[in-house]
Write the structure tokens for this entry.
Amino acid sequence: MKYLKVTTFLIAAALASPVAAQEAGGRLDIVVQPEPPGLMLGLVQNGPTQLVAGDIYESLLRYDSDLNPMPSLAKSWEISDDGLTYTFKLNEGVKWHDGEDFTADDVVFSADVFLRETHARLRASLAYVKSITAPDPMTVVFKLKEPFGPFINAFENGTMPIVPKHIYEGTDFANNPANATPIGTGPFKFKEWVKGSHIHLVKNEDYYVDGLPYLDEVFYRVIPDAAARAVAFETGEVDVLPGGSVENWDIPRLAEMDGVCVTEKGWEFLAPLAWMWLNNREGPTANEKFRQAVMYAMDREFMRDVVWNGFGKVATGPIASSTNFYSDDVTIYDHNPDKAKELLAEMGYDGEPVRILPLPYGETWQRWAEAVRQNLSEVGINAEIDSSDVAGWNEKTSQWDYDMAFTYLYQYGDPALGVSRNYTADRIKKGSPWNNVEGYENLALDEKWAAAATMVTPEEREAAYAEIQKEIVDDVPVAWMQELTFPTIYRCNVNDLVTTAIGINDGPRNAWIKK
Amino acid sequence: MWKRFRSNMGAMIGVVLLISVIVIALIAPLIFSDGPWQMVQRPFLAPFAVDGLPLGTDTLGRNVAAQLAYGARVSLLVGLVSTVVALLIGVPLGALAGFYGGYVDEGAMRFTEFFQTIPNFALAIVLVAIFEPTLTSITIAIAIVSWPPVARLVRAEVMSVRTREFVDAARLAGLSKPRILIQQVLPNTVSPIIVMASLMVATAILLESSLSFLGLGDPNSMSWGYMIGAARTVIRTSWWLSFFPGIAIVITVLALNLIGEGLNDAFNPHLSRKGKA
């Protein structure tokens, strides 16, 4: 179990003398897949953009793999006892890549003006904010309307990147010509982008943390074919394959090569959790006993080991184990076909067929659906696989035309940010595949979700979420499958590449190459 | 005629191969009662690595031998049914066009050309994608792209047969036109149709495999094309996953071609082929 540390942090402690002797210099080649649509992190926040722009832009905080906040642009911070005031002290001597000074005004402009307009996910959190002010050039104060515990997770780089006020104030943000040559405060500067080939970043010599970064340059390489990416890594052309850039089956082969390391870390903040929507409205899946039987029928350990080559973790409930307020004090659904058959007999299942809709993201997901179908048929459930492309999958899930449908969603560190949206009745709305698609309605639990989001202390929230998890896991609104990890493959002489909860998105900052 | 067919070595090999495939398809449920999707062992087991799994296991630990046997059912079923459907469309259309001529012929042939101008495989992909991949939609799609050559062949045959004396005799005897067509003309066009049909089954099996390879197969029925498609990403580490279904397709298609050739020779004894004494 873990809870948020909200005490003041001193930068001195965080930047204490390094243990190993890092070596400066060298170049790192990282695969980026697919090519990002743009690098202005305040405007575009999809995966490839976060990967590259995470070196150019920075936010107030970074997070370690337990989601504890660490200093970044802010050197210290304080949350008042009532949970309403967040005060940040900024690092001094920070300069934008064009030489201008970075001040608290940039933070106020970014959060209050720029991102409020461009960043939908942050806007939802900013709804709790009454005011953002800069009492002096090195201090920023956020005042909230009511306590909102998850707010401390909103200062991550993909959520609240700080953009330069002197470039963007009073302009049309989306069409500002400066978007093509991003200016940030980060450890690397944008040098060149050859479309279809590579993005070249160079070391920021004026970076405000002494000695960082160690690398001279970073190349993000665009290689469109998965097999070609694997070959590029084998031949030494690239040094890092970020999660998801090669087929699962290729991972063991690449990992066995000499001097190659694999890590599953670096996904703690996003914490992608995969599950099957079970249609709670009609058909056999509307019956709670049937849904429980589905859970008992599946051998999820086997699926993790075989379909995902052992990467990931079998889910116990709606909250991923790396997300804050995770509790494992819930009913555990192990592989128990007899129990599943019993439950089916109790409900009087008549063999009505159910359709399984796989996620159309390639081989792995297709095999996963086949394994589920086989497990279900072993306990007597008549299951068929529905086939679909991406557009069809979106259509069927958002129009509720399915019985069981695979999906996965990010959690962003806190249940109030990335979990409750899939289970409360006010989020039942046709037309979106990201909300309460299963149609689960439990009004008593809705109140608990709402209350837990605005409780002041982490201890209160922890207790509230533990209660919610215990209750919801018995209802099985959806069939939780597993916490996905997308392993990062890299050469072992690259050190300190994945040290935070967002992995290599801000990894090159601390990375160094041993010669 | 059977004598001539029997004396053709290639054709007899074809018959033996095809019969073995049919037998395997028929008895598949008896040997592999758990079906082709059952995960029986560790994944990626090489052939003969474990007793009872002579062809190894696939990416999910399913028995490749069972998959092959069940795949034969789908391939043969789709091949046969789609050919029958294609014949049901092509033969009447071609016969009417050839027999009546004039506007009927013009209309039918322009309609046929309309289909012939679209590449077969592209049209099949579009049809399956629109109707969602099921065995029925795949069979119908294959039939729709395969009937035009049948129509043209039947038309040509009918045109040549209808000018023979026995047709004139039938007309003089007062038989109605439809009766002449059905009772006198069509039976005399049967042999080239049979030859063509045997080759069409082979083409249909290839088409079905190609569709499944591209992920447009019926996700609920095991087929050879699906097996190769699923093994594509692991071809460097697990050769047997794509090798055996590939061999199965080669054997079946080869068998059908040999039979087709044999039938052709048997029906047309006077056409001695090149390279033969």
The interface with chain B takes residues 247, 249-250, 253, 302, 306-307, 358, 363, 366-367, 369-371, 373-374, 377, 384-389 of chain A (CB under 8 Å).
